[in-house]
Amino acid sequence: MKNKYLKILLLASCALIPFGGLGAKEEIRDIFFEIHNDEIKSAMERKVSMKKFEKFFCEVYWLKDQKEVVVVADELKAGVRAAVRKICERKSDIVIPASFDKYLNPFEKSGVKGDWDIYVDQTGVNSINEVWVKRSPLKEEFIEKRPTGTTKLHYTYQKVKGLKRLKEVKMSSYEGVQNISSKTVIYYAKIDKYLLPVKAEVHTNQNLVKKEMGDFTRNIQETFYFKNYKVNASEALIYFSKR
């Protein structure tokens, strides 16, 4: 994939793994929504398709333990389509958070250092060797250690009408000659009787140091929109039943 802009978004999006449940007072069993991003759409139009897209967004279907992300766009090469899908998959976690236990499932607790719980990969096949975890009611911090570098994650939550909501995610990743940091701020609105994410503002900063070129910095500001929700309307059930 030649699009460097998309590569940076992929690196930044991989950090977003909020935990918990959908957090509704009434159970959400079936949900459909769309993810729109004008910055990615414009980049694809300029550098990949060389024409305007009539449609460019992702559809997300979730039913219990099943989730499918579909890219709605014409004439995208398989590699680019897969990259866009990957970004949308990560951003869909804002609406459908991952399970904390599932995230730590490949690891075993090896000890405690101060306020940090330390988990290690016992399989030898995981890309992450070690995870440090610090949690409090409205904050979570993670340090992921890999052979190639380290990623630090900081999640801030807020209580809205008695429900815990992810408000902000900060990420910093160090690998080789580059480091990437990002800040994601999430906004909510009432959809029918549910309080759901409708917008995520993301600021990403990439710093690259090359001996022959010196320091290089790139900043990207983007906004993801979550639209056209259908909750408990059997939209995902119908989709999965046709597969």
Write a short abstract of this structure.
By secondary structure, the protein is an alpha+beta fold. A 12-stranded antiparallel beta sheet has the order 3-2-1-12-11-10-9-8-7-6-5-4, sandwiched between helices. About 20% of the residues lie in helices and about 50% in strands.
Radius of gyration: 19 Å
End-to-end C-alpha gap: 29 Å
Estimated share of beta-strand residues: over 45%
Low-confidence stretches: none
Q: Overall pLDDT, averaged? A: 85
Order of helices and strands: HEHEEHHEEEEEEEEEH
Major sheet description: 12 strands, antiparallel
In one word, what is the shape? globular
Fraction of residues in helix: 10-25%
The count of strands amounts to 12
Structural class: alpha+beta
Number of helical regions:
5
Strand line-up across the major sheet? 3-2-1-12-11-10-9-8-7-6-5-4
Topology summary:
Blueprint: H1 4-13, E1 30-36, H2 38-49, E2 56-63, E3 66-73, H3 78-92, H4 100-104, E4 107-113, E5 116-121, E6 130-136, E7 139-146, E8 149-160, E9 163-175, E10 178-191, E11 194-210, E12 214-231, H5 235-241
Antiparallel strand pairs: 1-2, 1-12, 2-3, 4-5, 5-6, 6-7, 7-8, 8-9, 9-10, 10-11, 11-12
Describe the structure.
With 243 residues, this protein is of the alpha+beta class. The chain contains five helices and twelve strands. The longest helix is centred in the middle third of the chain and has 15 residues, at 78-92. It is globular and about 45 Å long. The two termini are 29 Å apart.
Keywords:
51% strand; alpha+beta; single chain; twelve-stranded antiparallel sheet; 20% helix; globular; 243 residues; 12 strands; 5 helices
